[in-house]
């Protein structure tokens, strides 16, 4: 069963455009090999970090949204952990509202009249 995931990772700011594209392709291919589908990638560009990470004050943010079986995450995160170009990464499981919840809107409880 596939689940929706979002992975955000930060690349070193000194990487060139070609190196950034290679890194994106590397992790996208890793996910595809593990059975991930509907991979959407957004390059958020270079941004200032809230605090210094591995002596870097800036980083290139990349966001990936995809559907994947749960066992596809570990190999990708292992490759990121061993990579010199990735300074931070995080994967979260997306909680999408089910169709049942969307069809029946929540009705607030009536407020009792005070006497």
Automatic annotation (TrEMBL):
CDD domains: bS6_chloro_cyano (cd15487). Gene3D superfamilies: 3.30.70.60. Belongs to the bacterial ribosomal protein bS6 family. The keyword DNA-binding does not apply. One of its GO terms (biological process) is translation. One of its GO terms (cellular component) is ribosome. This is Small ribosomal subunit protein bS6. The keyword NAD does not apply. SUPFAM superfamilies: Ribosomal protein S6. Keywords: Ribonucleoprotein, Ribosomal protein, RNA-binding, rRNA-binding. Pfam families: Ribosomal_S6. It comes from Atlanticothrix silvestris CENA357. Residues 96-115 are annotated as: Disordered. Binds together with bS18 to 16S ribosomal RNA. GO terms for molecular function: small ribosomal subunit rRNA binding; structural constituent of ribosome.
């Amino acid at each position: 069963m596939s689940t929706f995931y979002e992975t955000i990772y930060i690349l070193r700011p000194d990487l060139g455009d070609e190196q950034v594209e290679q890194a994106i392709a590397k992790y996208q291919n890793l996910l595809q090999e593990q059975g991930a589908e509907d991979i959407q990638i957004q390059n958020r560009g270079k941004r200032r970090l809230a605090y210094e990470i591995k002596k870097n004050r800036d980083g290139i943010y990349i966001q990936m949204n995809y559907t994947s079986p749960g066992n596809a995450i570990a190999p990708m995160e292992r490759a990121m952990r061993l990579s010199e170009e990735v300074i931070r990464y995080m994967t979260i499981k997306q909680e999408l509202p089910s169709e049942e919840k969307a069809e029946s809107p929540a009705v607030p409880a009536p407020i009792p009249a005070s006497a």
